[in-house]
Amino acid sequence: MFNPSRDEIMTLIAAAIQAPSADNVHHVRFRIVARSLDLHVDDFFQACGPSHRRLLTLMSFGAVAENLRLALTTRGWTFQPQWFPDPADPTLLVRIEWDAIGAAQSADPLARFIATRHTNRRFFRGALSTADTDALAEAVTPIPGIKLEWFDTKRRRSALLRLIRIAETERFRSRELHRELFESIAFDAGWEEGSVERLAPATLEVERLVRSPFALLRHWPVMRAANLLGTHRVMGVRAGDLPARTSANLCAMTSTLMPDAAALAVGMGFQRVWLAAEGRGVALQPMVASAILATPAAASSGIRPRIHEVLREGWQELVGDALPLVVFRLGHAPRPRVVSKRKAVEHYLM
Fold first, then answer.
1. pLDDT attached to residue 1
2. Geometric angle at alpha carbon 278, from 327 and 244, rounded to 5°
3. Is the Cβ–Cβ distance between 12 and 68 less than 8 Å?
4. CA 129 to CA 126: how far, in whole Å?
5. Strand pairing partners for 146?
6. What are phi and psi of 93, to 5 degrees?
7. What's the CA gap between 143 and 266, in Å, rounded?
8. Residue 69 and residue 111: Cα distance in Å, rounded?
9. What is the distance between the alpha carbons of residues 156 and 152, in angstroms, rounded to a whole number?
10. Does residue 202 contact residue 338 with C-beta atoms inside 8 Å?
11. What angle do CA 157, 240, 115 make, to 5 degrees?
12. Which has fewest Cβ within 10 Å: 13, 143, 255, 300?
C-alpha cells in the first residue's frame, strides 16, 4: 500500500502544478488529509457558470490530474481520476485515496518532461517527421473520447487559418474579449522577466519596436480608437494567422464527449501530447481562440453572434459534430529566453 510522506506529497503537487493552465493561473487547491489528497476548485471556477472560461479551466484541471498520475507512476503507483466524486461537495474535483490506488507496471516515460515543458511563441521552422507525428498520436491513445486532427493538406490548412484569423481579430475587437485577453498579461513583470501568475510580456515574443504600442492597447479607449484604423485586423494576423501560417504542422484536439467531460479529457490528452513533443524536441504553441470561441459555451462571451456562427460552421465543416477545444502549432525553434513560472507549492494548499 502506498503511504507517502508529506514531502512526497508535496513533490507530487509540485509536478501537478507544472501543468499548463489558461493565462498561467491555476484554479485548483490541494488538501492533504489523513489517507488521501483532495483536489478542490476555487471560487473563480465556481463563478464561471456555463461559459468558455469554464471549459478552459476544466482543461487545465485535466492537465493537472494527468501530471499527478504521471508523477505517481515514477513511484510505482497510478490512479484514474473520478471527477467531482461527492455530490454534496461541488468544490471537490478529485480525491486520491492512497489505499485505493493501483500499482503501476512501470513509470510513464512522459513524466520526465513535466518540468521542462513550455510554450514556445517563436516562429517555427521545419516540419515534424513521421516518427514525431506517430509519437504524438500514440501519446493520446490512453484517453478515450478524444481525437487529434491534423491540418496538413492545403484545403484544410487554409480553412483553419481563416478561423484562427477571424477568432484572433475578434479578441481585439470585442470589449469583453479584449478585457479577458489583456487581463491575462502581467505588464508589471516587465519585458525581461517571467511571472509566477498570468503571462509575463517577456513570454509573448512581441517585437521590441512595437512593445510600447502593444502595451497601450490594453486600455480599451485606445484599442477602440485604433480599431477605426483596422488595428484589430493587423493584430489578428500577427497574433494568430502569421505564426500559424509559417508553421508546417497544425493540429487540433476534438472530443465526442459532453462538453465538461470533453474539456477534462482534452486537458489530459493535450498534456500528454505536449510532453511527448517536449521529449522529441518539438516546439509547441497552443492557439485556443478559434476552437473555444466556436463552442456553444462561448455564445455569451462578448463575441458577435455572426462571428460565433462563422466559427461554429467552419469547425463543423472540418470536424463534423465533434467539439473542438484546442488548436496548436508545432515545429522546431530555439527555446524561448523567458518561460512562465509557478508560485511556491504552499500557495496551492488549503
1. 76
2. 30
3. yes
4. 9
5. 255
6. -80, -55
7. 8
8. 9
9. 7
10. yes
11. 100
12. 300
Q: Which of 91, 58, 25 is nearest to 255 (CA)?
A: 58
- Read off the amino acid at residue 51: S
Spatial contact of 165 and 236, defined as CB atoms under 8 Å apart: yes
Q: What is the DSSP string of 120-181?
A: --SPPBS---HHHHHHHHHHTTTSTTEEEEE--SHHHHHHHHHHHHHHHHHHHHSHHHHHHH
Q: What is the CA radius of gyration of the chain?
A: 20
Which residue is listed with cell 473520447?
145
How high is the pLDDT of residue 190?
93
| Mean pLDDT split into 10-residue runs, the chain, 350 residues | 92 98 95 95 91 96 98 96 96 96 95 97 97 98 98 97 98 97 96 94 96 98 98 98 98 98 98 98 98 96 96 98 98 95 96
Residue 49 confidence (pLDDT): 86
- The helix (run of H) or strand (run of E) holding residue 45 is helix 43-48
